[in-house]
Design brief:
With 185 residues, this protein is mostly helical. Helices cover 74% and strands 0% of the residues. The radius of gyration is 20 Å and the shape is elongated. The two termini are 21 Å apart.
């Protein structure tokens, strides 16, 4: 850290796998909602906004982390809550239409789960959108949302640990001020 500085610059959200996954969830949701939902259905806007909120709050929380651990943790939790809301929309879509929610017993579940973690998926998911039917797309989105919310839970745990170890910005400022005074007597 440079002399006279005490705030550690944060904001590397684009490097977070969870951000990339949430971005893909947004892309899939945008495509899905506009293809499979009626143009007059309020769920289109709700699903797209929940997906957007998931990704945007990861970014905003990461950027806010430089000056507020509290805001970082709160916004990361908002991202998780938004994705949980979106998860319910996808589950509802399958349930009310009598489609299958792929669980561990479903023959395609584990293969989809592994594929959604692969580099091939991360770079080529757009090509899938026109080839999947609505049940497949819902289950792919659900798989990704589950992965993202798991990662967000872990990220929140890490953020809390960092807060306990390093304190908030006020504590960091006070430590820097004390250190400055000590070194400049």
């Amino acid at each position: 850290m440079a002399k006279g500085t005490f705030l550690q610059q944060k904001g590397g959200y684009r490097n977070l796998v969870v951000y990339r996954i949430s971005e893909i969830v947004y892309d899939i949701t945008y495509y899905f909602a506009n293809k499979y939902l009626s143009k007059h259905n309020r769920t289109i806007d709700q699903m797209i906004q929940a997906a957007r909120s998931g990704k945007q709050n990861i970014a905003e929380g990461s950027e806010a982390a430089t000056t507020s651990s509290e805001t970082e943790i709160k916004l990361t939790n908002v991202a998780k809550a938004s994705l949980e809301e979106l998860l319910i929309d996808y589950e509802d879509y399958l349930r009310v239409r009598g489609m299958s929610l792929w669980n561990k017993e479903h023959p395609r579940y584990e293969r989809l789960r592994r594929y959604c973690k692969s580099d091939a998926f991360m770079t080529g998911y757009r090509d899938l959108l026109t080839r999947l039917n609505e049940e497949e797309m819902c289950n792919m989105a659900i798989t990704l949302i589950n992965q993202a919310t798991y990662m967000l839970k872990r990220l929140i745990e890490h953020q809390q640990k960092m807060f306990l170890e390093n304190g908030g910005v006020r504590e960091q400022m006070m430590r820097a001020r004390i250190e400055y005074r000590k070194n400049n007597k």
